[in-house]
Design a protein that fits this description.
The structure is a single chain. By secondary structure, the protein is of the alpha+beta class. It folds into two domains: 2-75, Orthogonal Bundle (Arc Repressor Mutant, subunit A), CATH 1.10.10; 90-147, 2-Layer Sandwich (Dna Ligase, domain 1). The protein has helices at residues 2-16, 23-34, 40-51, 56-68, 138-147, and strands spanning 38-39, 73-75, 83-85, 92-97, 103-107, 132-135. Strand 2 and strand 3 (83-85) form a beta hairpin.
C-alpha cells in the first residue's frame, strides 16, 4: 500500500515536471528516498532489487534527468563519487566522514546566513552555497581510538596533520 501511494505521488511529481513516467524513474526516486546520499552504484543495486532487470545506463540516465529537473540533488564532495538526495529546494550543506564516507545533511546557519554573504560577490546575486564539512563520525573516532591510530586523512584531502 505504501509503495503504491508513494508511486502515485512520484508519478504526479514526474508529470508536473513534464517528465515521462517510467518504471526506472519511479524506482530511482524510491531508491534515493530510501538511501539519501547514495552513490549511483548503490542506487543501481536498490533499483535492481525493486524492479528486477535494469541497465546501469538506465539508472544513470534517470539520475541525470531527475537531477537536471530539480527532483534530485547531485552532490560530489572532493575525492568522492557523486551522491544523490531528494532534499531539494533549500540551502543545506553536508558533513562527510573522512574514514567511512558517511554523509549527513547540515542545515545552514539559522537566521543570519553567512554562507550566502561572500566578502566580495563580484556582482553575483548569490542564492546557494555548497559547503562540505569534513571530519570523523563518532563510530570511526571510537574505532580509531580502539586501534590507537592517529587520524589520517583520505588521500587527496588536507588536514592539520598532513599539511
Amino acid at each position: 500500500m505504501a509503495k503504491a501511494a508513494a508511486s502515485s505521488h512520484d508519478r504526479d511529481v514526474l508529470r508536473r515536471h513534464g517528465l515521462q513516467v517510467t518504471p526506472q524513474r519511479l524506482a530511482v526516486l524510491r531508491a534515493v528516498a530510501s538511501r539519501p546520499h547514495g552513490t549511483a552504484d548503490e542506487i543501481e543495486v536498490l533499483v535492481r532489487a525493486d524492479i528486477g532487470t535494469v541497465s546501469r545506463q538506465a539508472v544513470y540516465d534517470s539520475l541525470s534527468t531527475l537531477a537536471s529537473n530539480g527532483l534530485l540533488r547531485r552532490i560530489q564532495p572532493a575525492g568522492s563519487p557523486a551522491r544523490y538526495e531528494d532534499r531539494v529546494g533549500d540551502n543545506h550543506h553536508h558533513l562527510v566522514c573522512r574514514a567511512c564516507g558517511r554523509t549527513l545533511d547540515v542545515d545552514c546557519a539559522v537566521g543570519h546566513r553567512p554562507c550566502l554573504q561572500a566578502a566580495d560577490d563580484h556582482g553575483f546575486i548569490i542564492d546557494e552555497a555548497e559547503v562540505v564539512y569534513w571530519g570523523y563520525c563518532p563510530a570511526c573516532r571510537r574505532a580509531r581510538r580502539a586501534q590507537g591510530a592517529k587520524a589520517v586523512a583520505r588521500p587527496g584531502h588536507m588536514t592539520r596533520q598532513n599539511t
